[in-house]
Amino acid sequence: MPELPEVEVVRAGLAPAVIGATITSVSVIDERALTRHPAGAADFVGRLEGASVVGASRRGKFLWLPLGGGVDAMVAHLGMSGQMLLRAPNAPAERHERIRLGIEHPQHGELAIVFSDQRTFGSLAVDALVSDGPDLIPTQVQHIARDPLDTGFDDAAFVAGVRRRSSAIKRILLDQTVVSGIGNIYADESLWAARIHPEIQGSALSAQAVRRLLGEVRLVLEKALAEGGTSFDAQYVNVNGQAGYFAHSLNVYGQQGTPCRRCGSPIKRAPFMGRSSHFCLVCQRLR
Question: Which domains does the chain have, with CATH numbers?
Answer without folding.
Answer: 4-141 (3.20.190.10), 155-280 (1.10.8.50)
